[in-house]
Every structure is written in C-alpha cells, then in structure tokens.
Amino acid sequence: MAILPPDELDRLHDAVLALDPTVRREMLRILEPPAVERARWIGRLYEDEGTRTTAELLIDAEEGPPIHTALLDALQFARYPDEGPPSFF
Question: Which domain range does residue 14 map to?
Fold first, then answer.
C-alpha cells in the first residue's frame, strides 16, 4: 500500500485541525464503519447542498486506502491535538 508523502500528510493534518470540531466528529463517525455504510452516509450528505463539499471530500477519501487511512488518522489525532491519540500500551 502506498503512503502519502510527509508534506501532504502535514497539510492534511493542518486542514483537519482547522475544521470545526463538530464537522470533524461527523466525518470520523462516517469514515469508521464498513464501506457499504460509509457510501450510504456519504450519499445522504451529497444530496444536501449544504453538506455537498464535505461529501466530496469523503468521496475523495474513498478513492484509495492511503487517502482514507490518512484522513481517518488525522481525524482521530485531532481529538487529542496536544498529546496525540491515547495510548493503551
């Protein structure tokens, strides 16, 4: 699996941190389930003109595992921007 270049990952993390926390939580909630459920949620967002831009970003994230994984990681990290995600080890 290809990995996004570090500069792209940094830009993605910065962009995610700039989002409203409510939007980040909603995107995370949509990206975590299996693909069929994600597609259903993204379709609902796309139907509403007010959330179409968010839907388009999520559609882009579905184009390949590296993008989906990087966005999911950035959203999870954004929960704990000062200390990173919690460690269970």
Answer: 9-78
Residue with tokens 């941190």: 17
The answer to pTM > 0.90 is no
The answer to whether 4 and 67 are in contact (CB under 8 A) is yes
Residue 52 has which token pair? Answer: 């179409």
- Domains of the chain: total: 1
d(C-alpha 80, C-alpha 52), whole Å: 27
- Furthest-apart CA atoms within the chain: distance in Å: 43
**pLDDT score at 86:** 47
CA–CA separation, 51 and 27 (whole Å): 11
Within-domain flag for 72: yes
pLDDT in tens, 44-80: 999 999 989 889 888 988 887 888 888 888 898 888 7
Cβ distance 80 to 28 under 8 Å? no
